[in-house]
Design a protein that fits this description.
The protein starts with a helix and ends with a helix. It has two domains: 257 residues, Rossmann fold (3-Layer(aba) Sandwich), CATH 3.40.50.410; 38 residues, no CATH class. The chain has 305 residues and is α/β, with parallel strands linked by helices. The chain has ten helices and ten strands. The protein is elongated, with a radius of gyration of 23 Å. 42% of the residues lie in helices and 23% in strands. The chain has a six-stranded mixed β-sheet, sandwiched between helices. A two-stranded antiparallel sheet has the order 1-2. A two-stranded antiparallel ribbon has the order 8-9.
Length: 305
Amino acid sequence: MLPKDIIENVRRIEITTKRLVTDVFAGQYQSVFKGRGIEFDEVREYQPGDDVRSIDWNVTARTGVPHIKKFVEEREMTVMILVDASRSCRFASVRQLKSRLAAEVAAVLAFSAIRNNDKIGLIFFTGEVEKFIPPRKGRSHVLRIIREILCFEPSGRGTDIAAAMQFMTRVTTRKAVTFIISDFFEPEADHSVMPGNAAPRFIKALRVANKRHDVIAVTLNDPREMDLPDCGLVELEDAETGRAYTVDSSYVAVRDEYAGRALMRVEQRSRLFRSLNMDHIDVSTQGSFADHLVRFFAMRRKRAR
């Protein structure tokens, strides 16, 4: 039996996100994500103006009357949602935890998918893949996904994006629209985004996955990750490694270096996605994520024309 507060949170997210899907994203999802191909619909008699390349010569020879094959777009897709459950996503300095933000974004994407009769699957990952929910359809399945995101207690605390992407490519046999929702903090990789060091090791896995699937990164952000306030001596702990630091935030140089490193990380992350030809959506614990999703859908629709 789920705790009452979890049930209420699931219901609140369902009401909020379904309203967004209905009022904001109606029709947009279908217009920017393509099905995996075309499927045969029927054979009918040839009519002037039809493409002669569509003529079914077997039926034409058998009946003595020209017939053509009709095809329709195969709309059904598989949508995979990969959710970062590492300790760094259990953080917030303002309105909500990054993990709660991930649940709301995942809910909007999932409800958009079921309106289009698509299947939705879920993968939780930390330093390893911790849980896999195979793709299925239906409202009850989406509600299960939301419950899992809100309730899931990971055993690990780190992040291994490469392992998550490799697992997804193994379990997904056909092309899938894949959303990876993460803050993209990897303890080892974060050192590597600094000048003169190697690139994050998950680059290869993202590149391979994006060649086979339509991979979209949803980056979880919090304003405190970009700006360190002046509040004297501060005890900080790396959520994923447990390493502790003492920082004197009263020094302007310390705050400037903190902000500079944060900005560099965000810029290099954006350049990384562009180099992989991957779309990405930045969302924040501060304010609504709806506007960011609207801009993403608008961009994809414009590009598809």
